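Colleagues,

Please find the record for the three-part complex below.
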Amino acid sequence: MKRSITLDVNGATRTTEVEPRALLASVLRDQLDLTGTHIGCDTSQCGACTVLLDGRAVKSCTVLAVQAEGKQITTIEGLSGDGRLHPLQQAFWEKHGLQCGFCTPGMILTAVDLLSQNPTPSEAEIRHALEGNLCRCTGYQNIVAAIQSAAGALR
Amino acid sequence: MATLFGSGIKRREDPRLVTGRATYTDDVKLPGLLYAAILRSTYAHAKLKQVDVAKAKQAAGVVAVYTGADLRDKVNAVPCAWNVPNCDLKVPPHPVLAVDKVRYVGDGIALVVAESRAAARDALDLIEVDYDPLDAVVDPERAAQKGAPQLHADVPNNVAFTWKVTGGDADKAFAEAPVKLEQRILQPRLLPTAMEPRAACASYNPGTGQLTCWITSQNPHIHRFLLSVMTKLPEHRIRVIAPEVGGGFGSKIPGYADEALVSFASLDLGRPVKWTEDRSENYKVTIHGRDHVEHVELCGTKDGKITGLRTRVYAGLGGYASTAAPGIPTILHGLMYSGPYAIPNIAGTVYGVYTTTTPVDAYRGAGRPEATFLLERMIDLYARKIGMDPVEVRRKNLIPNDKFPYTVATGITYDSGNYQGALDKALQMIDYKKFRAEQAKARKDGRYLGIGVTTYCEICGLGPSQVAGAVGFGGGLYDSAIVRVYPTGVVRAYIGAKPHGQGEETTFAQIVADEFGLPVENVEVVAGDTEATPQGWGTYGSRTTAVCGSAVKVAAQRVKAKAKQIAAHLLEANEADLDWKDGKFVVKGSPDKSKSFGELALMANVAWNMPPGVEPGLEATAFFDPTNFVFPFGTHICTVEVDAETGEVKILRYIAVDDCGPQINPMIVEGQVHGGVIQGLGEALQERAVYDEDGQLLTGTLMDYAVPKASQMPKIETAHTVTPSPVNPLGVKGVGETGTIASVPTLVNAVCDALAPLGVTHIDKPLTPARVWTAIQQAKGGAR
Amino acid sequence: MRIGATTTYRELLDSKPLRAKYPLIAEVTEHIGDLQVRNAGTIGGGLAHADPAADMPPVMLVLDATFVLQSKGGKRSVPARKFFKGPFTTVLKPGELLVEIRLPGPPKGAGMAYASFEQAASGYALAGAAALVAVAKGVIARAELAFTGVAETPFLAPATKPLIGTKGDPDAIGRVAEAAMAGVEANDDIHAGREYRLHLARVAARRALTEALARAT
């Protein structure tokens, strides 16, 4: 029933046995111990499980692990290295773009994708890009500010 | 040295959160871990004829299956812990798994424990339940009528309590008043929707007899107590750890059957057991908020002086009384009927009613949003009736600045206030007169602009323990801190409260660092582990900073006093001759004779040369019990434009002027206001949990329950006034709930104001385009 | 133009030829799901799913697309206008996949537009209308109008004829929008009652037709 898949996760090759029905989010969390990817809903609305698949933000609760075979996955744990923060992580910190932090990994990874396509988004474009990421704490205002600030830093 | 108090420094908790290195409850993984899943009732109300678990027990990977009958004598019922007195409260038992009857969709029926999440879930499908369906009743007013389906044998008409609040003589006021009005107001049921679903992971060690339970908790000490009641283990044998907690909004206060079930399973099986709800389960099982049907009357003079308020409220409790449920629509609601106004005559009756729905408990604001909403809505209706500007009506009734402390008709005493100051500031920001002129012009062009102005105050900083006892709260409401200085001079504060997004790891570090003249990096705040922290009562009711923060302050002061004793000894000086300057005790007049905080920390910890009779170590514990609640206040203003063709509401500006006393970290305060306001705007515009008449939850996922999205919400303009509270050493008030309390009526009043020319007077929340459009059509029909 | 069924929404947005020829597809795609869903979701998947409130189906109807269906037994072509049978139900048979979407060239000078009202939680349409208007010699030569979210399936409005040969004045557009809802059995749910949904559909139709006409050259 189970089958072996090989994924490139945060630059490392990981091979694991999964059920064909297993969701990427569950495999990342339960089998690869990457618990920075969170699960906040079961209908692909909240975006807490967002990861980058070949550089593009996807909801890992709506991707089968077997679909990710051979692809590059970046989770929040792999976004930065060397003890330095990614400019978006830094900006979320500086602009108070998080409170409980549960939605934050997904927010940041969605923003990475947004800024890779549109380095100078307007406030409306940022809010539109965040439609698939719910935050119950911040009211979004400081998240928008953080993404604007990071956009400036990345330019 | 500049103080950290008042500085918007970056949060200490964020590096782990932005890098995905925080540990939430579902992230906990233990050797030999088993996974639990719970079979939930698909009926709202039914007799359980048979629960057949034979096939599930045989399924691959399943370790154990338990039913209500199996646990009846082994696990106690889920307790209700707020036994409000003088209201004939009836709390029927709430078994951890249903035994003979289910009372809401989601009521637990069986527990499966298996080697994997998937195996546990799969086995649920193999359990066969034979239900004998009964009639459901979801509306609290209807449930309280004769002939309604009865949930509990010993609760006639489903009425759990009848609670009354009176002050002055309301009946006389109404008999004499020239102006009277009434309105039926609905507070729809809401789904708290903390982004992190609830979870519990229990690990019982048969060798030590100790149970450790990780719980998504706002109040680990309360959960320890509730878990002790349910599992029958003594409290000292239970360690509750609330690790990182992903939001609560009240939904992680109550004790639930779920943590007792995994604890029992771990005790029974000798292996750790974890359960995590998904969002659909969260919406069915985790408490809901609000759910009032309110009949409200207001009376007053023709020139705007309010003379009386009467209410008759049906508050839905759901199938059982949740932990704090009876206190929410009573103590935290009815006692606030005067709001920021001097209303001499008040009479309220609140019926708590069981319905075949998910239990209702504290949700952000908990009782105060409902009180503020009904009052602010009535004031706008009153203003319209007497043809007076709604702002002037408010101004005329606000408690004057020179009257504090002020005791309102409901009997509670407000600590401090400057209500006019906040109102003036907000009106200035919006330029009220200018907006009214624009509105008049727009109306001529067939456009519908509106403005809503809310002046509010609320009760928080819960609270004096003596009052807690008097109102039947099953515990204290003090809070606690241990401030411990390490030999290196680093300080840790172990606190009783449990922040879960509010940033007290930072703000409390600011308090401590200021006390000792340390950089904030040298202070750490530890919370959420009952083995490490002293007894506390949790983070809710906007109490953490006012109560627990004060305990931190007092403990730090005690540590500093001891450090001074040691310094005096080492410097061979009198304590009276020492000054505290730049992080050192300095002998007056001899600037070269000093002892730094670091030197004293080391000496206290090695104790080589202590003053006679002084114990080694440098730490202190403080339990802070406030003398009163705190009453933050402010004015919120919203302007809107309504598209009368489609009913869509566009927010033009939203202004929040709040007074929570002195701010330790203004950045964090502002964040609380943003989040609170948006949560309230969700309530005002789009959130509503809907049951059909069979008790099925139609808004069972985020596909149908409209939590606000970034693209749907406006930018908030914030400002503050600062009026210290006299009831705690920091002078602070709470700000966690003010946004939600104030924003709901502000938006609704703005929309009703916009549509006044069409004859619309009231629209039930949430103001979805469909409802706004329907109200416009009805008003047009009425005009014909 | 042919679009493979597993083309993601993101790829549709990134395609310059598609945007040049069928700007409406890009415009509508921007409103489907959210950023992450557009990265992973496919046009074929969405159409075959046949959610009665999805945004893309009415676009396929006004463009008169043809869907290529394939099974082990072979291929067949079905007009989009005959593909949708009911909520989440299509003419697809067991073992059959939607593999390709074929779009005829749009009429010369055609303007296209989409107007919709979203359900606040899911983002699906409470009511949405797609319109295509082609103008020749100063008058409307062709007008197509299709709806989503209103009934059990997306559907093409039969009654756009009164616009043909006219300049499309607001009253005429309003009458067509009104007539389009005649006899329609509209959905009624917790998000929008029947009457409101019909009203929104009329408003969407009027706005889409008006905008499509303005875009026609």
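The interface with chain A takes residues 10, 33-37, 39-40, 121-123 of chain C (CB under 8 Å).

Comments are welcome before we finalize the supplementary table.
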